[in-house]
Amino acid sequence: MPASPRHPTPGAGEPESILEALGAKAAGIELDLSTPSAPAALFDRASSRFGPVDILVNNAAHWEPGSVDHLTADELDRHYAVNLRAAVLLCGEFVRRRPPSGGGRIINVTSGQGAGPMPGALAYAVTKAGLDALTLTLAAELVASGVAVNAIDPGPIDTGWMTADLRASLASASPAGRLARPEDLAVVVRLLCQDAARSITGRVIRIQSEGVVENLERELRSVGATF
After folding, report:
1. Catalytic amino acids?
2. CA distance 20 to 212
3. Among 107, 103, 108, which residue's Cα sits nearest to residue 143?
4. Can you tell me the distance from the alpha carbon of 79 to that of 129, in angstroms, rounded to the nearest whole number?
5. Which pLDDT tens digit goes with each residue over 48-102?
6. Cα–chain-centroid distance for residue 94?
7. Are residues 151 and 112 in contact, defined by beta-carbon separation less than 8 angstroms?
8. What domains are defined for the chain?
9. What is this structure's pTM?
10. Which of 129, 142, 165, 215 has minimal Cβ neighbours within 10 Å of its Cβ?
């Protein structure tokens, strides 16, 4: 993802420090997901290090500012290649490598484009919005295989790139009255990956909506989940 006021380049050494903290449980690879061969390369690397992949979280994104009067085909293609095409190809690679009826989880991270407008970021909005459609259709297609497919819309997440004014503006417009944190997204990912959540599929979970996460926890407890 290119550096920009919305998505600055990570601090020097930040990815390495995260991997170091996770230790042997994690491995990193630098990969351009806009290339069609990237999904196979990623799964080859993961499988050789950890064995079969049971969970896929599509959380990659490309963003550039741009309104319709300045939009170019190249700009639209750059967004499409990462925000939608890569996600579809990664899902395909995941499914092909799963044993029949082997189950598994696919979780797509959206940005709420289907719930409200995003002026000034048209290419980003339309390509990320496709993840909602991917989630619903793929969930229906994979029911027999036991692979549950869901999407999470966390709303704006403050990971350090926001100015104080933007942070305040987004927080005031949020249904929850605050911005989501990376931990909020991680909590829902973990809930959806539990064994008890295997029947939850085809949902777009908007975690800033009142009571959504709590209702999900109650639903999972009712079928024996513990957390």
Report:
1. 124
2. 34
3. 103
4. 12
5. 999 999 999 999 999 998 899 999 999 999 999 999 999 999 999 999 999 988 8
6. 15
7. no
8. 33-221 (3.40.50.720)
9. 0.88
10. 165
